[in-house]
UniProtKB/TrEMBL annotation:
Residues 1-27 are annotated as: Disordered. This is RNA polymerase-binding protein RbpA. The lineage of its organism: Bacteria, Bacillati, Actinomycetota, Actinomycetes, Pseudonocardiales. It holds the Pfam family RbpA. Keywords: Metal-binding, Transcription, Transcription regulation, Zinc. The keyword Lipid metabolism does not apply. GO terms for molecular function: bacterial-type RNA polymerase core enzyme binding; zinc ion binding.
Amino acid sequence: MAGGNAIRGTRVGAGPMGESERGESAPRQRVSYWCANGHESRPAFALDAERPESWDCPRCGLPGGLDEQAPPKAPRNEPYKTHLAYVKERRSDEDGEAILAEALAKLRAKREL
Ligand SMILES: [Zn+2]
């Protein structure tokens, strides 16, 4: 009686079967992501999980994409672009006002004639 209990106890504690069962119940896929610096990162996802379109490179922090030939660009220069767009927008507004004022002046001149 006592000997049987001891054997059962060691089986539960060792459990090499439990580890392989855990691996089978959660199958994983490795997905390659490429950053603009050519680094490859291969995070693992569960097979039924949706893989994200981008993955931050663990080496340089740039966003990585699934396409090695066309990795996503670093988003660092966006504030400059936004500023430039703002300046352009403002300038075209001023131009528009000048053209409008000129047109109005011509219209008034014609009426007076
Ligand atoms: Zn990188």
